[in-house]
Amino acid sequence: MGTMSDRVREGYLLTSDPGRVDIARIHAWLSQESYWAEGRERAVVERSVAGSRPYSVYAQEQQTAFARVVTDDATFAWICDVFVDQHHRGRGLGTWMVESIVEDLSVLGVQRFLLATRDAHEVYRRCGFAPMQGTDRWMEIDRRGGRGGGRA
């Protein structure tokens, strides 16, 4: 799982170098500011980043955005934990990250990308995403507390 080339735009650097990820910052964003990972333990964030392809955006040396991709680098990619620091929102960083992820993995032959969002549908539509077709084929076990998953 190699890194893709760095990109620069309007004073921001986008990289997929796992060595650049600011775990403390990512943990704070996800566990304290996101609706989907509230209370997530730091050790879980560390393992999730280590087992994924991370993408990070920096302004100077400070991380300003993050996303990770769970992928086999051949057929499928799940884009998750997309987060842009509140002071850098509205500048297209989330769209830039997701478009770059799709571009990078498409070069490897990945043809199916999946993500879930509660409130950023327009951001992802700009990147080419549409509501999932055939959702009746998908099944899940969801053992996160209070979510009602995992029951027949």
Q: What order do the strands of the largest sheet run in, or round the barrel if closed?
A: 1-2-3-4-5-6
Rg on CA atoms, Å: 15 Å
β-sheet strand percentage = 15-25%
CATH architecture: 3-Layer(aba) Sandwich
Number of strands: 6
Helical amount among residues, as a percent range? 25-40%
Structural class: alpha+beta
Determine the CATH superfamily.
Gcn5-related N-acetyltransferase (GNAT)
Strand and helix layout:
Layout: E1 7-9, E2 12-15, H1 23-33, H2 42-50, E3 53-59, E4 62-71, E5 76-84, H3 93-107, E6 112-114, H4 121-126
Parallel strand pairs: 5-6
Antiparallel strand pairs: 1-2, 2-3, 3-4, 4-5
Helix pairs in contact: 1-2
What is the structure about, briefly put?
This protein has 152 residues and is of the alpha+beta class. It has a single domain (7-127), classed as Aminopeptidase, CATH 3.40.630.30. It has helices spanning 23-33, 42-50, 93-107, 121-126, and strands at 7-9, 12-15, 53-59, 62-71, 76-84, 112-114.
Key attributes of the depicted protein:
152 residues; alpha+beta; Aminopeptidase; 4 helices; 27% helix; 24% strand; disordered C terminus
How does this structure look, described?
It is globular and about 45 Å long. The chain has one domain (7-127): Aminopeptidase (3-Layer(aba) Sandwich), CATH 3.40.630.30. Strands 1-2-3-4-5-6 form a 6-stranded mixed β-sheet. Helix 3 (93-107) links the parallel strand 5 (76-84) and strand 6 (112-114). Helices cover 27% and strands 24% of the residues. Helix 1 (23-33) packs across helix 2 (42-50). The model is unreliable at 148-152 (pLDDT under 50). It has helices at residues 23-33, 42-50, 93-107, 121-126; strands spanning 7-9, 12-15, 53-59, 62-71, 76-84, 112-114. It has 152 residues and is an alpha+beta fold. The chain has 4 helices and 6 strands, in the order ββααβββαβα.
